[in-house]
Every structure is written in structure tokens, then in C-alpha cells.
Design a protein that fits this description.
heterotrimer, A mainly alpha (323), B alpha/beta (502), C mainly alpha (328), B: Rossmann fold, 6-stranded mixed sheet, C: 328 residues, mainly alpha, 73% helix
Chain lengths: 323, 502, 328
């Protein structure tokens, strides 16, 4: 009986925008930037944008699953940094064995995700606090192992290729991002795991009573999210030729904002990987446009904060239903 | 018996866009009167209640309280005029004391926002003494049994000087004895000149405690009677329509088949769980409906959950098809062909934001997937067949479940379990909160399953339901079994006596 | 009748005393008055933050932005005194008002824009930090960065009465005011009501939005006090003031028995919780654990505290079940 109080036409308009707010905004922002600064639309700049967003994008894709279950992972920044440091150390110790370095970094990231996932799924602790603590524990452990200094990565070439190399003009990190998206979309739409993630976010008790392996799936989402952070850590370390325990402070905000702007509800039960990708681009394009227009970095931070808050306020509004 | 009119509503109507929720409803509530408001789901009851509490503004009509026309659509105005509502779900702060909850949000102060504790206590004591409500003011609400919490809500409403109390299915979560307590309180309120609107699906309650009845159907008042003047059959006919009512009673006796095909599907031997139940012994045969009844709190739900594997048990054995099993989780139970329809479909049963199709396949994912990959054509086949079989309306597999009516949601929930082709289906209060039409459809589904030779175990506190569908009946009391009877060999009155403890 | 709200504190005090005893026994330098000073000066501001944090937590929310609010208030004080040359009696209240406003913005985002508390305060955590960099006089005129704040009023919190720093007395005042607010006012009852059942609170006419905004404002004000304590000790402020301190504040509050579920707790527990944290961290440092282990330990202690909170919730649920079984 709780249908809206709006007139049918107003409702239709709202319904249109509630479904398409994101693409409409994305296009609008692109048009505005293109009008102000034509260089925005150059192919180099467009590829540059994808390159720039790839690190946040890789993490946001993993984060989408956590948020779909109704959880959150604040620890992605430190995990990313720690994975980078781990890769740098392994490279040095193994005399430049890239495979081993990647394996070590990803194993580390996955273990952290597993630990947090078990705290959430098995002990039943709130994910917000578990990952807040995780953030601090991982950052501290990274500092204990790596100290506060930058670790220079001199090679080998194949490692640096991950972040800086190009295949016919397109940066390799873009391919990594694309691969993450493809795998995540497959997971979400074609596997039992994807359906169960949604079911858990919608109604965990019902999912359990339907015979779904709720704990395993929940824990797995944190593993997936940390895995994304690990991949991002490797890409970042290779991109900037350094690794440091202090990287990625505050990056969780960008990652979470991308997911939520994409329309994944923080309450869980809704959301999708493609929309997260759109959210990633929205934030990425905003950063890029603001930088092109020479807006000072502090102002960028504040402007971004404002836009994110506004977008979140709009995104979290249930348009179709009034009270 | 009843006094001056407190509230008159005339010609109330409410439309939402093209949907007519309430067409033309007039109702009068007098001091000291308990008026029952009945009707199938969607008949307009909740819309009427929302107009009376001021939650929504009617499109047409007017409300008159104490001789004055009042402005509708303003909750504060209605509250100030003495209209209070006790909702189905709790509106208390569980960690706070009874005293604080009675004055929730209106604790008396002595200026500067400082609490006046002594005055608060004095006023509360006077209130519960006047209405003879037995409450420990210092108890924490979370520690109280459900009926006491309802009484706290009543006291809270009365502390607002409520003249008219709207009660929305107040007994929905109460045990039988608790209902009796609640009725005692309602009678005291009557004597004190409070007018009460009592909404319930349960005919027994209406005939026991109400003076008058207003029947709503399709947004209109179709009858307005004194309870003393009518019979149950008349009332039933009025709100579900003539045809269905006639069917309901007659059908029951014809289709009974105690012990079904004679093969034991499920045997429970001396099952026990510390602090909850113990010494439970029964068998369910293929092709019968076995009902477990008892008061709320007699641990029926806990027993079925242990059989299904959702909870553990400490002693005794469960034997399915001659093999002893010890299900550790629901997945285990499902693997052995056991399905479980929980009582609270919103909390335990459905993924409301997901589609009908996604809900239907949730327990049977193994049948529509290969190596964890979804097979879309098989999924579509499964959901199309289920929607047709169960007459789920509207027949759209991609419709969000939250947008279906209660009865259709319940059919989706049952449909989910039919997809695993259960040999044993456990159902906990399968028709709670669904309208009479959907109830009849659910009974038809259960009978069909029975005819297919499945073992059906139904937990229900609705005696009419038990007598309608059961082949055999087990009564539980305080975690122990009282006995098992063939439904043909026992009357409803006898069962009620066993349930209540002689 | 057992008062569930008081239950955790008794155990907490025992743990607190035992922890102190253990460290006194383990380390000679722990039982000196100098070390008492260290604990009091090192964690009074954490305790003030924990008291402030308790209000959002009681509402079932959380305030992640307190560290950034500290930096903002601290930098504003620095600018006002060093750059603008304003006197202390303007700088002090000015910084506090700014901090309160920053908290109020959090409250408005949550109450009016209906953002989830953690997402709103996560966003402002970044925004306030950005604002701090934007207004930083140290960045614009690097030559004044090293000039200390000397106003006697601003640096007063660094003074001592005997071995007890003024900051500790400030804590006592903040604690007393907030505890009275919660205990004996209508506003306090309203907070518990909202935390316990927000729908019920709305239906009985409590102005939920106002209560939310006030609570987050008080949390902001407490962050302002904490900032002044640190600024007065360092006689300057930095852009990175208070990074990560929300962790300690939340941990202290949860250790102090404020339930993440909302509606349960007081502010005495969080004060003890903050000093328990202090005793453990300083104690372990004295026993020879490196500084970088501190965030790790704080995190682990926070995990332990929520785990314990969870156990308490389960225990309460079981107690209710048992009670209902006893009188059906």
C-alpha cells in the first residue's frame, strides 16, 4: 500500500533518473570538461584516465562484493601498501624473480583478507570495526617490517612493465583492470558465488536456512577484496618504482565512494560490478578534469569530498518510495 | 454497555495514483466499546488505520473526534486528540526500564531539561494502578516476556491520555495464556471508557473480546454488526465472499489419511536439547500431514529447527528412511531431502530485494548449475514451472519479491522448497499473516504434496488450521510432548484442552 | 534488577587494576610518578575523545572524523595566533567553535542527508584533513613554521598541579558534564531511546535529527578540546595532528562498555578504557616493544573489545531466552 505520493508523471521522471542518474551524470561531467578544456577529449588523455583509475578500479571491483553482502573493508589502503613492500622485498631477496614476488604479495594480501573475513563471518564481528582495526594492524605491521622509508625498485624490466609498460599504446595496467572487471562480472552473474553474495546481503538468515554456505561466501568476499588490494599494490609499486608502508592513506574513501556512487547500497543486497566501474570512472574523470583545470590539490580534495557526499546523498535516497 | 461516540469517520477514501486503497469507509467508535476491524489482506484495513493515526491524509471524507472535525494527515494532532496505536512490531527501547519506556520521549522534567524522577514514578504508579496493569517499573524491557511488553505499550499509550486505542494484531506473537492476560487488560480499559479498535485475523478472539465488528472488503465497509447478533459462518462469509467459506469446512474431513502409505519417512526418538525440549518421540509417514501444535513458547519451532539442522540437539536420534542422521546445518538437511518453511518469512524466509526467480532457485542451485556455473535456460524453466504450479501472481519471474502480496510471498517461499523435491517438508506456521484466499490455496498445495507421497510436518497454533489439514496431531507443552492423536479421533475442544494443560 | 548498562564497568575496573599491578611488577620504571605523568598526559586527550565518541556510538553511529577535526582546530588555532596574532582568549573559544561546527556538519550530513554515519564521517575525515592543508599557515609561510605558540592561556593545559596535568582536570570536567547530560536530563534519555529503537523514538515525538546533530557536535567539541591539549603541549600544530587517533577513541569507548548496537553504555567506561589502553601501550613500551607495534596493539585490543562486546550481546540474548523459558 505504500506507493508514492508523487503524480504518475513525476514518478516516471524520478524512476528514469533513479535508474540512469549515474550514466547521465557521467556524460554531463564529460561534456562540461570537454567544453572548458578541449584537451580533455584527446585519446592520450582518455587512455591516461583509464590508466589513472586502474588502481582504484581494481580495488573497487573487489570491494563491490564485500559491500553487496552488507559489509565494508576499510583496510584496502594498508593492504595495498604492505603488498607493495612485500613485493619489493621478495624481488630483492630472490634476485628479481617477478613470479615469486607477485605470489608472495598476493599470498600476503589473501591471508590478511582471510583473517578479516573469518573475524566477520565466523566470529560475527561488525566488518566496520574489524577492518578499522585491520587497517591499523596492517599499517603497523608494514611499518615494523619495512620502516617508514621508500624502497626503490630497480628492476627487473618485466616487473616494471606491469605498471609502466604498454601494449600497442595502451598501458598494461589497463589490461589488468580489464581482466579484473571481466572476472568479477563473470563471478557476479554466472556463478553460485555471485548469487549467494546478493542473497547474503539481502537476508543472511534466509540464505543460511536455504542451505547456502553463508560463512564461506562472506569470508571469500573479504579475500577477494584484499586480493584486489594486493594486485593494486603490485601495479602501484611497479608504476612508481618504489614501495612504502605509508602508501594508500585515505584511498579507501575513493574506493568505497566509487562503489557506492555506482549504486551499490551499503545495506547490501543490491549492486553490480558494471555500475561500480562507472562509479570509478566518474571519480577518475572528476580528478582528471580538476587537475587539467589546474585546481590546487587541497581544493581538489575538498571539492571531491563535497561531490562524493552529494552523490552519496542522492544515491542512498529511495526515490520510488516515500514514507 | 457502550457510551457516547468518541470518533466518527465518514466516507473515508484514499487513492494512490490509480490504485484505490480505500473507497468509502465510515466507522464509529464509542467509549467502552471494542470494535473489531476485519477483512482480507488488501481490503483497506491498514489504510484506514493509517488515516486514523494521521500517518496519511484521506482523499475524501472526514474524521470527527469529540464532536469536532479534525485536520487529518497529522500524527501529532491525532495523538493530541487521544488516538493512539499499538503496532505489531515493538515500539519500545529494549535496553531501558519500563518506567522510562512508559514516558518514552516525554519524561517529565523540572525545567532546564532535568529529569523529574520522583514525579515520573508517581505518575506511572497512578496509571498502572488505575488500569490494573501489573508491571514492575524497574524491570528492563528486554527482560520481559512479550505480553508484558505489549502491556508496557498500552501503558505508554494510556499515559498520553489515549481515549481511543488502535491495536494492530496485538496477539500475533503472543502465547495462549498471554492472550488471556491481554484480554483481561482490554476489559479493564473498557470499563474505564476507552474505545478500542481491534484488528485480528483470528475469529475466536473477535468473538471473545469484541462488541461490534466492521467488515471491510475491497476498500468498502460491507457490514457493521453487533457481535452478539451474528454467527462465525456469517462473519466468515462476509469477509471472504460466499463460495470460499462453504468449501473450507467440508473439505477437511474427506481427505484425511492417517499414517499415509504406511512407510515411515522420519522418525524422531527421544530427541532433546538442554533447556528447550526433551523426550520427543514421533514418526511421520509418507503421504500424511502431521501437525504439531501447542502454545507459543512450547518449543515447537526449536524442535523443527533441530530436525532440519538449523540448530543442534543434545540427545536422542533422528532417523530418515531407516538411517540415523545428525544434520549439522541446513545444507545437510537439504541434502537428505528435508525442506523447512520458517515462520517469519520476512526475517528467515525470503530475499525481499531479489526476484521471484532468484528466490525460487535459492535452495536448489545444484539442479540449475554445473560446477558452480548458472545455467540460464534451466533456471528459467524451473521458475516458469513453479510460478504456474503455485499460481504465483503476478506471474513475472523477474518481479521483486517485496512487491508481491503476503499470500504470494508465502507461495514463493513454499515454492522454493518444492524445487528440492523434498521427501520431508517441515512448515512452521505456513499461513500466518496471509489472507483467507491464499490460505485455501496453500492447503491445496499441501494436500497435493501429501497425495504425491511426501511426509509433511506442520507446526501451527491455529486450531482451525490444525483441524482442517492434519491427519495426526501432536501436542507439545513446555518442551515436552503431551500426546499424539488421529485427527478423526479427537475434537478441537479436546485438543485445546491438551494444549492448555487440562 | 541488574542494570545492563553498568555491568561491563565492574569487570573493566578489575582488568584495569590487574593490568597496572602486572606492569608494576614487570617494570621498575613503570611504578614511578614520572610514568604516572606520562600516562595522564599521554592519554587524557584520548579519554576526552572517547567521551565524545560515546555519544555517536550510543546513537548506533560512529564518528571517524575526530582526528581530522583535531587537525583542523589545531591548525586554525596556529593560524589565528601565529599568522593573525590574535590573543589566546579569542583563539581558544574560536578553535572550539570551529571544532563544534565541524561536528555539526557531520550531524547534518547524517540527520538531514540521511547518510550512513560511517560513510559521512569517512568523507569528512578526508575533507577536514584537506581543509587543514588548505588553511595551513605552515605551508604558505614555511619560515614561521617553527615559531612556537607562547600565549600563556593556550599553553596552560601543559601545566601541572603536582604530578597531575591540567589536561586531566579538563577531562574530569568534560566527563562530568557529559555524564550528567546522559544521566539526569531528558536529552540523555532521548539519546538512549534513539539508540535503542529509532522508530519508536520518532513515533513518540523525539526530535531525532536534532539529537543526532547535537551528539556529533559534542563529539566535535571534544575533538577540539583534545586538539588544544596537544597544541599546548607541542606549542605548535601540524597537518598530521591526530591521524589514526579515531581508532584509539573508538577502541576506548567499546572497551568501556559502549555497545556498537547503540543504546547501551555510559561515559565512565570509556575514560577507564582510554587509560587502560594507555597503560598497556606505555607499559609494553617500557618492557621494550617498538613504537610501530603500537597501532598493531591498538588494533588487536579493539578487535578483542568488539569480540567481548559481541559475547555480552549473546549472553544478554541467552539470559532473555532463559527468563522467558522460566515464566512462559
Amino acid at each position: 500500500m505504500t506507493t508514492a505520493h508523487f503524480s504518475p508523471r513525476a514518478n516516471a521522471v524520478l524512476a528514469f533518473f533513479s535508474g540512469r542518474l549515474l550514466p547521465v551524470t557521467l556524460v554531463a561531467i564529460c561534456v562540461i570538461f570537454a567544453l572548458i578544456e578541449p584537451a580533455f577529449l584527446s585519446p592520450e588523455n582518455l587512455i591516461g584516465i583509464v590508466h589513472q583509475v586502474s588502481i582504484i578500479g581494481i580495488m573497487a571491483v573487489g570491494m563491490t562484493f564485500v559491500i553487496m553482502t552488507g559489509g565494508i573493508d576499510l583496510s584496502v589502503g594498508p593492504v595495498m601498501a604492505f603488498a607493495g613492500v612485500c613485493a619489493a622485498y621478495t624481488l630483492e631477496a630472490s634476485g628479481g624473480n617477478v613470479g615469486l614476488a607477485a605470489l608472495a604479495a598476493l599470498t600476503l594480501a589473501i591471508s590478511i583478507g582471510l583473517f578479516q573475513g573469518l573475524c566477520v563471518a565466523v566470529l560475527g564481528l561488525p566488518s566496520l570495526v574489524v577492518t578499522l582495526a585491520g587497517m591499523s594492524i596492517v599499517r603497523g605491521t608494514a611499518l615494523l617490517t619495512g620502516g617508514p622509508d621508500l624502497h626503490l625498485i630497480r628492476g627487473p624490466e618485466s616487473f616494471l612493465f606491469i605498471g609502466s609498460g604498454q601494449i600497442s599504446g595502451v598501458p598494461f595496467s589497463v589490461f589488468v583492470f580489464a581482466a579484473m572487471i571481466a572476472v568479477a562480472i563473470f563471478l557476479q552473474y554466472r556463478t553460485v558465488f555471485g548469487l549467494t553474495v546478493l542473497a547474503v546481503g539481502d537476508n543472511e538468515r534466509a540464505a543460511y536456512l536455504s542451505g547456502r554456505r553463508v560463512r564461506v561466501v562472506k569470508a571469500a568476499t573479504y579475500v577477494l577484496c584484499s586480493f584486489g588490494a594486493g594486485v593494486a599494490g603490485i601495479v602501484l609499486a611497479s608504476q612508481v618504482h618504489t614501495a612504502a608502508s605509508t602508501y594508500g592513506a585515505g584511498i579507501e574513501l575513493d574506493v568505497i565512494a566509487s562503489v557506492v556512487i555506482g549504486g551499490t547500497s551499503l545495506m547490501g543486497g543490491t549492486g553490480s560490478v558494471p555500475r561500480t566501474v562507472a562509479g570509478v570512472f566518474l571519480i577518475g574523470i572528476m580528478n582528471n578534469g580538476l587537475a587539467l583545470m589546474n585546481v590546487p590539490i587541497e581544493m581538489q580534495l575538498i571539492a571531491k569530498g563535497l561531490i562524493i557526499v552529494l552523490a552519496l546523498a542522492l544515491a542512498d535516497r529511495p526515490w520510488q518510495f516515500s514514507r | 454497555m457502550t457510551g457516547a461516540p468518541l470518533l466518527r469517520a465518514r466516507g473515508l477514501g484514499k487513492t494512490f495514483g490509480t490504485l484505490v486503497a480505500l473507497a468509502d469507509a465510515s466507522v464509529e467508535i464509542r467509549a467502552g466499546e471494542v470494535r473489531s476491524l476485519v477483512g482480507a489482506n488488501g481490503a483497506g484495513k491498514s489504510t484506514l488505520i493509517k488515516i486514523l493515526t494521521g500517518a496519511i491524509r484521506p482523499t475524501t471524507g472526514e474524521v470527527e473526534i469529540g464532536g469536532e472535525i479534525v485536520e487529518t494527515g497529522r500524527p501529532a494532532e491525532m495523538l493530541a486528540r487521544g488516538v493512539a496505536c499499538i503496532y505489531q512490531h515493538s515500539n519500545l527501547a529494549p535496553a531501558m526500564s519500563v518506567l522510562d519506556n512508559i514516558f518514552l520521549g516525554r519524561q517529565p522534567t523540572r525545567g532546564l531539561g532535568l529529569l523529574d524522577r520522583p514525579r515520573q514514578r508517581r505518575e506511572a504508579e497512578a496509571l498502572i494502578a488505575r488500569y490494573e496493569i501489573d508491571l514492575d517499573l524497574d524491570a528492563t524491557v528486554a527482560d520481559l516476556p512479550t505480553v508484558k511488553q505489549k502491556e508496557v505499550e498500552i501503558a505508554k499509550a494510556l499515559s498520553l491520555d489515549a481515549k481511543i486505542l488502535l491495536m494492530d494484531e496485538p496477539t500475533a506473537w503472543l502465547a495462549h495464556e498471554e492472550v488471556a492476560n491481554l484480554f483481561r487488560t482490554i476489559r479493564t480499559l473498557k470499563r474505564n471508557g476507552v474505545g478500542i479498535v481491534y484488528i485480528s485475523h483470528i475469529l475466536d478472539e473477535i468473538f471473545e473480546v469484541c462488541d461490534t465488528v466492521t467488515v471491510l472488503r475491497d476498500g468498502r465497509v460491507v457490514a457493521d454488526w453487533n457481535i452478539a447478533d451474528i454467527t462465525r459462518q456469517q462473519l466468515l462469509q462476509k469477509f471472504i465472499g460466499e463460495r470460499l467459506a462453504a468449501d473450507a469446512g467440508a473439505h477437511a474431513r474427506r481427505s484425511r489419511s492417517a499414517r499415509g502409505t504406511g512407510t515411515v519417512k522420519l522418525a524422531v526418538n527421544h530427541l532433546g536439547r538442554k533447556g528447550l525440549f526433551e523426550g520427543i518421540d514421533f514418526e511421520v509417514y509418507a503421504g500424511e500431514i502431521f501437525c504439531i501444535t501447542g502454545l507459543i513458547g512450547s518449543k515447537r519451532t526449536e524442535l523443527v529447527r533441530s530436525i532440519f539442522g538449523a540448530d543442534r540437539f543434545d540427545s536422542g536420534t533422528i532417523v530418515i528412511d531407516g538411517t540415523e542422521v545428525r544434520p549439522r546445518n541446513p545444507a545437510d538437511g537439504i541434502g537428505r531431502g528435508v525442506g523447512f518453511v520458517p515462520e517469519d518469512r520476512h526475517r528467515d524466509g525470503l530475499m525481499l530485494k531479489m526476484s521471484v526467480e532468484q528466490n525460487l532457485i535459492m535452495s536448489a542451485l545444484g539442479d540449475v548449475t554445473d560446477w558452480g556455473l548458472m545455467r540460464r535456460s534451466r533456471i528459467a524453466d524451473m521458475s516458469r514451472a513453479a510460478i504456474a504450479d503455485l499460481n504465483i501472481l503476478p506471474p513475472e519471474p523477474h518481479k521483486e519479491v517485496a512487491k508481491l502480496s503476503g499470500g504470494n510471498q508465502q507461495k514463493v517461499l513454499i515454492g522454493k522448497w518444492l524445487q528440492i523435491h523434498p521427501d520431508i517438508l517441515l512448515l512452521d506456521e505456513p499461513t500466518v499473516g496471509v489472507d483467507v484466499g491464499a490460505k485455501a490455496e496453500i492447503y491445496t498445495i499441501l494436500r497435493k504434496l501429501k497425495a504425491e507421497g511426501r511426509a509433511i510436518l506442520v507446526v501451527s497454533s491455529d486450531m482451525e488450521e490444525v483441524m482442517t489439514i492434519a491427519d495426526r496431531i501432536m501436542v507439545m507443552r513446555s518442551g515436552r510432548m503431551v500426546g499424539i492423536w488421529d485427527a478423526d479421533a479427537v475434537t478441537q475442544q479436546e485438543i485445546v484442552a491438551y494444549v492448555g494443560g487440562e | 534488577m541488574i542494570r545492563t548498562a553498568r555491568l561491563p564497568n565492574r569487570e573493566l575496573i578489575i582488568v584495569f587494576v590487574v593490568t597496572i599491578a602486572v606492569f608494576c611488577w614487570l617494570s621498575g620504571s613503570f611504578r614511578t610518578t614520572g610514568n604516572l605523568e606520562n600516562v595522564l598526559i599521554g592519554f587524557s586527550h584520548t579519554a576526552i575523545l572517547a567521551v565524545g565518541q560515546s555519544l555517536p556510538l550510543l546513537l548506533g553511529g560512529i564518528d571517524l572524523s575526530v582526528g581530522s577535526i583535531m587537525a583542523l582546530a589545531g591548525m586554525a588555532a596556529f593560524d589565528a595566533y601565529i599568522v593573525l596574532g590574535l590573543p589566546g582568549w579569542i583563539v581558544l573559544p574560536g578553535a572550539l567553535v570551529l571544532a563544534t561546527l565541524a561536528g555539526a556538519v557531520n550531524g547534518v550530513l547524517i540527520a538531514k542527508l540521511k547518510l550512513q554515519p560511517f560513510i559521512a564521517t569517512l568523507a569528512t575525515m578526508a575533507a577536514y584533513r584537506g581543509l587543514t592543508y588548505a588553511i595551513s599557515g605552515r605551508q604558505i609561510w614555511p619560515e614561521i613554521a617553527t615559531r612556537p605558540i607562547t600565549d600563556p592561556l593556550i599553553v596552560a593545559f601543559d601545566d601541572y598541579v603536582g604530578h597531575v596535568p591540567y589536561a586531566f582536570f579538563l577531562l574530569l570536567i568534560v566527563f562530568a558534564v557529559v555524564q550528567l547530560l546522559l544521566g539526569v536530563t531528558k536529552f540523555g534519555r532521548d539519546l538512549y531511546t534513539i539508540g535503542g529503537n529509532v522508530e519508536a523514538a520518532r513515533l513518540c515525538g523525539i526530535n531525532v535529527d536534532r539529537a543526532v546533530i547535537i551528539s556529533y557536535s559534542i563529539s566535535g567539541l571534544c575533538a577540539g578540546f583534545a586538539a588544544l591539549v596537544l597544541v599546548s603541549r607541542m606549542t605548535t600544530s601540524t597537518e598530521s595532528l591526530g591521524i589514526g587517533i579515531e581508532m584509539s577513541a573508538i577502541a576506548a569507548a567499546i572497551i568501556g562498555g559502549v555497545s556498537l548496537q547503540g543504546g547501551i553504555g555510559n561515559v565512565f567506561g570509556p575514560v577507564i578504557g582510554a587509560f587502560l589502553l594507555g597503560v598497556v601501550l606505555i607499559g609494553l613500551n617500557l618492557v621494550g616493544i617498538p613504537t610501530y607495534a603500537q597501532p598493531v596493539l591498538t588494533g588487536l585490543i579493539l578487535l578483542g573489545a568488539v569480540w567481548y562486546d559481541r559475547l555480552l550481546v549473546q549472553r544478554r540474548a541467552r539470559a532473555i531466552l532463559a527468563k522467558q523459558a522460566a515464566n512462559p
